[in-house]
Amino acid sequence: MRNVTRYTLFLLLTLWPAVMQSQDNSKVQSLLAEADACISKNELPEALGKTREALQLSPENLPVLQKQINILLLMKDDKEAMKQTDDAISRFPEEADFYYLKGAIYNSREKYERALDNFNRAIELKPTANRYKFYLGRGVSHLNLMEYDLALNDFTSTIEMNDTVAGAYHGRAMVNYEIHDYSAAVSDFLKTLDYSKGNSVLYFNLGMSYYRLEEKSNACPYFHKACTLGNTNACRMALMECAKAIPALP
Predict the structure, then answer these.
(1) Cα torsion for 182, 179, 165, 210, to the nearest 10°?
(2) Alpha helices, DSSP H only, in the chain?
C-alpha cells in the first residue's frame, strides 16, 4: 500500500505542472478573446488590461505581446508601442511580426525610410501567416515616398496573398490615380468598397477618378456622398461640377 501511495504521489507531482500550464493556456486564450471583444467595442484601455493580465500568466506568449502592441497603436501611444516592440525584438530577434509592427510605427510617424528597413527585415525572415501584411506596410511606405512602381508591386503582392484586404486595393488605387491610370483606380476603389465600409475620403477619391475620366454622371453621386460625410473638397466639387441634379448614393 505504501508503494502504491508513493507512486500516486509521484504521479500527481509529475502531472501537476502540466495541468497548471494547460489551465494557464486556457485562461490566456480566454483573455485574448475578451481583448478582441473589447477592441470591437472600441474599449481599448479595457483590452489593454486583458493583455497585461494574460502576460502575467504567460510572459513569453508571442500572440499576446503582438496584440498588446497593436492595441497601443490603436490608442495612438506610439512611444510605448515602440518601447515594447524594441524589447520584443531584443528577446525574439527572429520573429518577423515584431519587425512588421516596428515598421507600422515608423509609418505612423512618417519615417518611411526607417519603416522600409523593418518591413524588409520582416520579409527576409521565415514566412508567417501575416506575410501579406508585410508587403502591405511596405507598399504604404513606398507610396508615401512616391516610389510608385515599387508600391504597385507590393500592393499587388498583398492581393495575391490575400484578396480580401481592403487596404491593399485602396493603396493600389491611390498609386493608379497618381500615375493617371484612372480606370484602374476606379476598379480598385470599387473593390475597396467590397471589403470595407465607405468613408468620405474613399467616396471623394472614387468621384475624382470618375471625374478624371470625364464621367461626371458617375462622379457626382460620390461627391455628394462624400460631402454629406463632411468632406469639404467633395462639397466644392459637387457645387462646381454637379449643378445639374444627379441622384445621390443611398
Answers:
(1) -20
(2) 2-40, 44-57, 62-74, 78-91, 96-108, 112-124, 131-144, 148-161, 166-178, 182-195, 200-212, 216-228, 232-241
**To which residue does cell 478582441 refer?**
36
Which three three-digit cell numbers place residue 205?
477619391
The C-alpha cell at 64 is: 499576446
Query: What Å distances lie between residue 154 and 42, 102, 124, 157, 161, CA to CA?
Result: 30, 18, 15, 5, 11
Q: What is the pLDDT along the chain (250 residues), one digit of tens a residue?
A: 445 555 555 555 555 443 344 445 788 888 888 998 999 999 999 999 989 988 888 888 889 999 999 999 999 999 999 999 999 999 999 999 999 999 999 999 999 999 999 999 999 998 888 899 999 999 999 999 999 999 999 999 999 999 999 999 999 999 999 999 999 999 999 999 999 999 999 999 999 999 999 999 999 999 999 999 999 999 999 999 997 645 556 6
C-alpha distances in Å from residue 12, one per residue of 25, 26, 69: 20, 20, 38
Given a contact cutoff of 8 angstroms between Cβ atoms, the answer to whether 204 and 222 are in contact is yes
Cell 495541468 sits on residue? 19
Angle among Cα 88, 104, 178 to the nearest 5 degrees reads: 165
Which residues, 6+ apart, have CB-to-CB distance to 169 below 8 Å? 155, 159, 188, 189, 191, 192, 195
This prediction has a pTM of: 0.83
Q: Are 132 and 166 in contact (CB under 8 A)?
A: no
